[in-house]
Design a protein that fits this description.
Length: 565
């Protein structure tokens, strides 16, 4: 019994070894995917995060598959369970795909600033997460005090990536003392924010002592902000205000970003206010950026020269920042940065709408698209598009998109493309594919069709069979069986089978035996054949010879009779 059990166990192990691991991977991915199509499902997901179901669950996939209207919902940020000392207990750590959908009418006002929520936004805090393709629309009228890292999409992002997101949330505070951050992402730590846009207008008209305001990031620490744009207006009396980032420190970077919103500094010059970054720190970088909006100084009472106001950066807390290929709209008495006059080049707004400006910023390393109707615009985001080509064992697989050979996965912008795939022994696959922000369009499974096998030898053998008279042979059944055994749906990988079919027919033909020739009873097989005229001349000669002999004999007899008389 023991040996039998061990044998069965070994057999099971062998079977399991033969199952492709991809099958388990696909099953695991599906089991970790959550689809959200209703407000109730969104709230259930938020509750699951707060219960710790997504802690360190980096393989989790959450897909927003519909636009959601949160009218009437008092929003509690996702991942907002903190200990008494402020330690975050539960958080989201996975992939959240917005797929180009919008969360609209999100009202943060009721719970903003409460002590139980030190981080506030659609997400409170995320760690090791990816958030993409999400648009947030809403408002926030501050009604409670407190220190809050507020980000419309994420309050705090650590070791995370936020891409292709849009914030259209207004933030207003006219009379409450607040501190913290306000931006699309409040506080970014060791993170990347890219291809994001802020459309919301931010206004803080009360003098506050500790606050970072930015269109994209409020406070950036060892993080990169790239290919982002701010079109919202900023009216601010906060210590650090920037069109893109409020405070840039600890080797953080702003690369290839622009701001076009109206910038309205308030106060008497005791705050750091920059059109790209409010204040920059050690080993920070601002490259290939520009400000092409209006700077309204009508409520700014500082005396000239402005030491903490700049078209690129307001203040500098270290002597090691890097500025390269930056531009700003000329405004009277405003330089690129008081401490670094060469932090940027001033231009008229009209000149920044020309092709010459586009050529200038791109020639020096900027990555923008020409806009004939205005200022240069950002390149479109690209998505990693994977092609799953089957069968897996194909060789020399070549993938072309719009006629160009690409790697797999290919980085493609949203749009429709002509895809062509070729492989050894296969018909060429050709079809249109459409790429959008929806992750469902980022993977394309292509089933290749093998070329048909070559049946030339088979057809030649069958032609030989058709030329034969089966009645002349003792047994024709083997030939007929070989012909009937031909299967016409074989592909090129099965060519040996097709060749074997041809060989079988040829061998059957070679093995045929003819029937003996038919004969009449009592006759020899050597009897002359009827109709044989090969000796006709001889017969004629003999006929004349015999006729002549008869004549001679007759004449001789007659003469002899006469002599006797």
């Amino acid at each position: 019994m023991k040996k039998k059990f061990l044998s069965l166990l070994l057999a099971l192990c062998l079977v399991m070894a033969l199952v492709p691991m991809t099958a388990f991977a696909e099953e695991n991915e599906q089991s970790n995917k959550t689809s959200i199509t209703t407000v109730d499902e969104l709230l259930q997901f938020a509750k699951a995060v707060d219960n710790g179901e997504y802690d360190d669950k980096t393989d989790a996939v959450v897909s927003l598959d519909a636009d959601l209207d949160l009218t009437g919902v008092a929003w509690t940020p996702i991942g907002s369970v903190f200990a008494a000392d402020g330690t975050l207990l539960h958080y989201f750590s996975g992939k959240f795909y917005g797929n180009g959908h919008t969360i609209s009418n999100l009202d943060f006002s009721e719970n903003y600033g409460k002590t139980e929520y030190p981080s506030f936004g659609f997400f409170s805090e995320v760690y090791g997460a990816e958030i993409s393709g999400l648009t947030i629309q809403g408002k926030l009228d501050v009604s409670n005090s407190g220190y809050v890292y507020f980000g419309t999409v994420v309050g705090v992002a650590a070791d995370s990536k936020i891409s292709d997101c849009v914030s259209d949330v207004s933030f207003t505070d006219a009379d409450k003392y607040i501190n913290g951050t306000v931006a699309l992402c409040g506080y970014a730590i060791n993170s990347t924010i890219e291809y994001c846009q802020n459309k919301g207008n931010f206004s803080i008209t009360k003098d506050v002592s500790s606050f970072q305001m930015g269109g994209i990031v409020g406070l950036a620490q060892n993080s990169t902000v790239q290919y982002c744009a701010n079109t919202g207006d900023m009216t601010s009396w906060t210590p650090c205000t920037g069109g893109i980032v409020g405070q840039l420190f600890q080797a953080s970077k702003i690369i290839n970003c622009y701001s076009t919103g109206k910038m309205v500094p308030l106060g008497n010059g005791t705050i750091d206010f920059g059109c790209i970054a409010g204040i920059v720190g050690a080993d920070t970088e601002i490259r290939h950026c520009y400000f092409a909006g209006e700077m309204d100084l009508s409520q700014y009472t500082a005396t000239t020269p402005y030491k903490r106001l700049g078209g690129i950066a307001g203040g500098v807390s270290s002597d090691t920042p890097v500025f390269e290929n930056n531009y700003f709209v000329e405004t009277e008495n405003v330089s690129a940065c008081f401490k670094y006059q060469n932090a940027g080049t001033e231009k008229t707004l009209d000149s920044m709408k020309t092709e010459d400006f586009f050529n200038e910023i791109t020639a020096a390393g900027g990555n923008y698209r020409f806009n004939s109707n205005g200022i240069p615009i950002l390149p479109a985001p690209k998505y990693a598009v994977s092609f799953v080509v089957t069968p897996a064992e194909l060789t020399n697989v070549i993938i072309k998109v719009d006629g160009q050979v690409v790697t797999n996965p290919a980085n493609l912008e949203a749009g429709t493309y002509q895809a062509e795939v070729s492989a050894d022994n296969c018909e060429v696959f050709s079809s249109n594919i459409t790429i959008t922000a929806d992750t469902a369009t980022h993977t394309h499974t292509i089933a290749m069709t093998y070329l048909s096998a070559d049946y030339t030898k088979v057809d030649t053998a069958i032609a030989k069979v058709n030329a034969l008279n089966k009645d002349e042979y003792k047994d024709f059944t083997a030939v007929e069986a070989a012909v009937n055994a031909v299967v016409r749906d074989k592909n090129i990988t099965e060519q040996s089978q097709v060749d074997a079919m041809a060989t079988a027919i040829e061998d059957a033909i070679a093995a045929l035996e003819k029937k003996p020739a038919s004969t009449k009873p009592g006759t020899s097989d050597k009897s002359p054949q009827t109709g044989d005229t090969s000796n006709l001349a001889l017969w004629i000669v003999l006929l004349f010879a015999s006729g002549g002999a008869v004549t001679v004999t007759t004449v001789y007899v007659r003469k002899k009779k006469r002599s006797v008389k």
